[in-house]
């Protein structure tokens, strides 16, 4: 009887030891990892894992980890701005372009706010205001004695405003949360206007355009924390769906409207955005 009781106690002890050992491990991507070997940090008084646990739905384990970059519950306030100006006077290019007098500038500002509803995942709003002015006082083309013409007194002005909602998913690249990459999807709606003034057959022409547009954009990027709460971001436009409607009038006469739409499946060098973001 004593031997049987001893065997039962040993069996219960071994089972309890196995349960305790199993509780001290987690399964990540098909591999058991001891809890003590997982690095942890303290965020807002809570202890969290550096590696965000993700379920592997694929057939292969590539050994990739998503490190904690920005924890849940944080707010991000960002701004992207650009400014460009060009001014020329009596410029000559080769022997064809002469007396080129041009003055133009364009600037834009894009503030944004985001909330991290999960670690490394955020949703937010962006606002975009863009304005451009161009004045062409004179430009003369001389190809030969029989073919030459002059363009003068041309001006162009445009401004636009848009608002968009976006989702951004970060992937941390190191355990310190300094470097990361992200993919952003945003849905934008906006409107704007432009004015084009020029001389045609010796008479002034004034064309005004009202624009309404919408777009769905996919933009990957890189994020680097240059301070504890300040990051520098660079994003690139690589894919997008666009819809645009224009309504024009010339000298007060309605010239109708047109609708254009399309998709962009290539890298757009004119859609590179640089900005700063403060995370609190």
What does this structure look like?
This protein is mainly beta. It is 8% helix and 69% strand. It contains 1 helix and 14 strands. It has one helix spanning 2-23, and strands at residues 25-28, 31-34, 40-43, 46-49, 75-93, 97-118, 121-142, 148-172, 179-200, 203-225, 230-237, 239-250, 253-264, 268-279. The protein has an 8-stranded antiparallel β-barrel with strand order 5-6-7-8-9-10-11-14. Strands 1-2 form a two-stranded antiparallel ribbon. A hairpin with a 2-residue loop joins strand 1 (25-28) and strand 2 (31-34). The longest helix has 22 residues, at 2-23. The chain is elongated, with a radius of gyration of 30 Å. The termini are far apart. Mean pLDDT is 80; it is low at 11-37.
Q: Specify the number of helices.
A: 1
Report the structural category.
mainly beta
What fraction, in percent, of the residue positions are helical?
A: under 10%
Q: For the residues shown, what is the average pLDDT?
A: 80
- Based on Cα principal axes, name the global outline: elongated
Compute the CA-based radius of gyration: 30 Å
What's the end-to-end separation, in Å? Answer: 67 Å
SSE topology string: HEEEEEEEEEEEEEE
Instruction: Strand order, main sheet: write it out.
Output: 5-6-7-8-9-10-11-14
